[in-house]
Amino acid sequence: MSSTACQTTWLITGASRGIGFELTRQLLESPSNLVIAACRTPEKATALSALKSSAKGTLHIVKLQVDDFASIRALPTAIAPILGEGGLDYLINNAGILKEDTPLTLDPEVLLETLRTNTVGPALVTQVAVPFLEKGGAKKVLNISSTLGSIASAETFGKGTVTSYSISKAALNMLTYKLKQERPDLIAITLCPGWVKTDMGTQAAQLEPAESIAGILKVITCATAADSGKYLSHSGAEIPW
Ligand SMILES: NC(=O)c1ccc[n+]([C@@H]2O[C@H](COP(=O)([O-])OP(=O)(O)OC[C@H]3O[C@@H](n4cnc5c(N)ncnc54)[C@H](OP(=O)(O)O)[C@@H]3O)[C@@H](O)[C@H]2O)c1
């Protein structure tokens, strides 16, 4: 029997800080969770490593740079021995970047870098994770998107701001919907965590990480097949596309 057989297994990208770190921290409060926390420089992820001493659950840290396709293709070799025969229950594509720009000032290289990190990386991470998800029980993919990717909500935000980021998250939303269509055996959700106090969200944000992440975990653990393909907020409300 695999050592993971009695635990719910999670793979989280961008776990070194911010939302990915808080997801990992909260999940490790329960002995029933095994978290594979992926980050691009584990040797610098000191806060993440420090969770090992207080964790009730099981923490494994793996190296993963989501804008580096070779790094993503090496992921199965790193996680297979951790997961054993038990498979993966939850994949959370969380790592992301944001740079300020507008349609007429954007640097094409920044747009490509943002798409590579926020959209293409999650697509490839999902591809390599699917064989593990197929063996898992929950079979859930959570893509951390943003309301900034909602065309229906665009008037709520400043004109043209964070254009590359918004494009990348709108594309991530479509990727999620396409995954739901292709794989009805999986539950795929695209979700906005709210405006959260992190390096990206800044201290001006409305939500403490703990509040946002508690909501996110409730939404994804409670999600059923009927929810697959939905664009949700951290409180579970549907966001207009
Ligand atoms: N905070 C908000 O208000 C807010 C709102 C809506 C959506 N979101 C989304 O929530 C997610 C997490 O955001 P956050 O607020 O936690 O941001 P953050 O504080 O800036 O943290 C970003 C995380 O992503 C990782 N990362 C960035 N590029 C990476 C790469 N190429 N490979 C691997 N890891 C990479 C960072 O790792 P390093 O430490 O190595 O840099 C870090 O762990 C993002 O997808 C973001 O778009 C955030």
TrEMBL record:
Q: Name one GO molecular function term.
A: oxidoreductase activity, acting on the CH-OH group of donors, NAD or NADP as acceptor
Q: Which InterPro entries match?
A: NAD(P)-bd_dom_sf, SDR_enzymes, SDR_fam
Q: Which family does it belong to?
A: Belongs to the short-chain dehydrogenases/reductases (SDR) family.
The molecule here is called C-factor
Question: Which species does the entry assign this protein to?
Answer: Trametes pubescens
